[in-house]
Amino acid sequence: MPSRKVRSNRVAYSEKEYRFDKVLAALVYLASQPERVTLFDKKKALSLLFLADKTCLLRYGSPIFSDYYRALPYGAVPQ
Predict the structure, then answer these.
(1) 69: which strand partners?
(2) What is the pTM of this model?
(3) CB atoms within 10 A of CB 56
(4) Which of 22, 31, 35, 53 has the fewest CB atoms within 10 Å, counting from its CB?
(5) Are the beta carbons of 64 and 55 closer than 8 angstroms?
């Protein structure tokens, strides 16, 4: 299990570094699925990336993107 650092409402996973290429690949994949992902805008993209990260964290113990997330009234947003 990776070591966690908790700061206010953010959780940082220190074993992995942020990978922009993974985020870009995930966004390209989601944007290329119009029958599965409707109304693909910035809010939907951020929500789907957060849910993918959360699912991977729960299943495998480490997130995909290793990003910081902040809880806001309309959903989580990466830092």
Answers:
(1) 78
(2) 0.70
(3) 14
(4) 35
(5) no
pLDDT per position as a tens digit, 15-71: 567 778 888 999 999 889 888 888 888 888 888 889 999 999 899 988 888 788 888
Place of tokens 């942020």: 18
Distances (CA, A) of 67 to 2, 10, 25, 36, 52: 14, 10, 15, 25, 12
Q: What are the structure tokens assigned to 33, written together?
A: 């699925």
Q: Where are the beta strands (DSSP E) in the chain?
A: 4-7, 10-13, 69-72, 75-78
Alpha-carbon distance of 33 to 73, in angstroms, equals: 27
- At 71 the three-state DSSP class reads strand
Distance CA 36, CA 33 (A): 5
